Amino acid sequence: MMRICGLNKTTLLDYPGHVAAAVFLGGCNFRCPFCQNGDLVLKPESQAAIGEEELFSFLKKRKGILSGVCITGGEPTLEKDLGIWIGKIKELGYLVKLDTNGYRPEAVGELLGDGLLDYIAMDVKNSMERYGETAGVGKLDTGRIRETINLIMKSGIDYEFRTTVAKELHRKEDIEAIGSEIKGARAYFLQSYQESPGVIAPGFHAYSREEMEELAAAARFFVPNVQIRG
After folding, report:
1. Please, are residues 124 and 118 in contact by the beta-carbon 8 Å criterion?
2. Rounded mean pLDDT, 162-179
3. What confidence tens digit (pLDDT) does each residue in 69-95 have?
4. Alpha carbon distance 46, 33 (integer Å)
5. Which of 61, 142, 167, 193 has the fewest CB atoms within 10 Å distance of its CB?
6. Are the beta carbons of 58 and 84 closer than 8 angstroms?
7. Per-residue pLDDT averaged across 153-171, rounded?
8. Backbone angles phi, psi at 12, to 5 degrees
């Protein structure tokens, strides 16, 4: 059974160019201190569960109104039956977008290989040297991050990379380093950190719009299509 912890029934923001539903799955293998979905990550069992039957009943009713389903979290690739579940959504005629932190390239590769994804958004947390700190897990294998980036860029489907930017964690040289890792990517979004009650470790600060524009300009040396979101 999937741990469905939330459903946004209509969103114009989560799947570019589509009216979509966003499905939130609980649990995560990262502990990013700036994460806004703290309870979803740390205490998924505390979230009101939505049954699979209820979800699919909703999706059947909304066919023709919605065109896409965004699967987000938490970290969806932790669910071993994710592929089967996405297959059922695809059978209803929906386009599927996956949000991932990219730490399970084997899962992402399988979904891509089976043709189950139409769009993928990967959070690139920081430069490789600061990755563990930013992901809140100490040391990690950045080779896994690089492998997923490579899989996505070679996939042939629509995709984006994105980074949530906080003053305490990201310097201009970090953004440049990320740009170098995803050189030639289709799209890269910089998202400004926002303080909210759900943040795992509050206290971070956002750059000004002007400073964000400077960071975006630095990344454009590597990725022409860099945009600021939010």
Report:
1. no
2. 98
3. 999 999 999 999 999 999 999 999 999
4. 19
5. 61
6. no
7. 98
8. -100, -5
| Nearest Cα residue to 69 out of 84, 86, 82 | 86
Q: Which tokens belong to 13? A: 């923001």
Count of CB atoms situated within 10 Å of the CB of 113: 11
Average pLDDT, the chain: 95
Answer for the pair 161, 148: CB distance below 8 angstroms, yes or no. Answer: no
82's tokens: 């994710």
> Can you list the domains of the chain with their CATH numbers?
4-229 (3.20.20.70)
pTM of the model: 0.96
Q: What is the pLDDT of residues 186-211, one digit of tens each?
A: 999 999 999 988 899 999 999 999 99
What angle, 0 to 180 degrees and rounded to 10, lies between the N-to-C axes of helices 82-91 and 52-61?
A: 20
**Burial letters for 41-71: b for 16+ Cβ neighbours within 10 Å, e otherwise?**
beebeebeebeeeebeeebeebeeebbbbbb
Which pLDDT score is estimated for 49? 85
CA-based end-to-end distance of the chain: 34
